[in-house]
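Data card: per-record layout.
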Amino acid sequence: MQLHTQTLGQGQPLVLLHGLFGSADNWGSIAKHFAQHYQVISVDLRNHGRSPHRDSQTYAEMADDLLETLDALGVDQVHLLGHSLGGKVAMQFATQYPEKVSKLIVVDMAMRTYPDRYTQLMDHMLAVNLSQMASRNEVDNALKGPIANVRVRQFLLTNLVKNEDQLQWRINLPALKANYAKLIAAIAVHFDQPSLFIRGERSDYVQGSDITELQQHFPQAEFVSLPTDHWVHAEQPQLFIQAVEAFLA
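The structure for this 249-residue chain is written out next.
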């Protein structure tokens, strides 16, 4: 499928891929900064943002989506940067289509299987009767009990939109829940070109054993740790930008 994209700037294409429950909008100031030197293409993955919805969602399919989208844009080769779920998609794309990727950047994500962190969260979102809700505040209040973390709720609520005066989730929650086991499963990937793995020091997404495994599958990999949790680019945008710029230069 062709995915929804936002494009800023001119030059060598730099593609940005968001994480689970995210969208191209998440890159905001990061995309604007890199647009000074690159053609920045921020992508909505399938079942996210303004991209089409499908019942199926595998990493191979998401890599094919990206290829079809880049072909439609007339883009031949890119620097590819992905965070979390987007990082796994980026690794998969670089494995399937290595000739399309100049440099690969993966943010706080490894190859391995991850524990189920979000099925319960999706259940809470699906349990909210949006037809009875008139505002974002009402949905926020409905989620306060089961999802106590304010930052998590605010992030999830970025997916709330109004369609003909009816609130609805923009992400395809039923499909994401149905395919979640595939999304947290390990992937078989390999890429011989320059790669940068940026991890958050306070995050448990990339551990020492993950780095050892990644080095075997990404022989030209570099590793950078920043003083953050999982949302590396949001928590330390300047340090993140510096790390990416140094690698791309």
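Known properties of this structure: The first helix runs from residue 28 to 34. Strands lie at 5-8, 13-17, 39-43, 78-83, 101-107, 160-163, 166-169, 195-200, 221-226.

See the next section for split statistics.
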